[in-house]
Design a protein that fits this description.
Blueprint (H helix, E strand, L loop, with lengths): L1 H20 L4 E3 L3 H29 L1 H6 L4 H19 L3 E3 L4 H25 L5
Amino acid sequence: MLSLLSNVVVNAVAIWVATLIVPKVSIEGGTIPESFVALLVVGAALALVNAVVKPLVKMLTGCLYILTLGLMALVVNALMLKAAGWLAGQAHVSFDPGPFFWSTILAAVVVTLVSIPLNAFLDSGSDGGD
């Protein structure tokens, strides 16, 4: 349960950083508490999409990963951001990962680059003495 919660928080922080850096990526929440809740909802949506949809897409596009030497991961991550944006919209949270190609791919890169060290920091902080 703690792992799921930390994943949601890491995703929320990464999406927040992406909204600060990438020009056409936005999340609308109104007040600060509403923005915080909106970021958590989008973080949860991204965690859900990454847990359920992404493994299926990676399995179906495995040959393209090899053919493009891993660059397909950028497109898949951008698609996962779009899917998370749609899912958050179903919860009445306005998250726009930008017009598809460049801004969404750049947002996916930012989310990945922010979440990797945050996840590594959180994993190093756990005991790990199974």
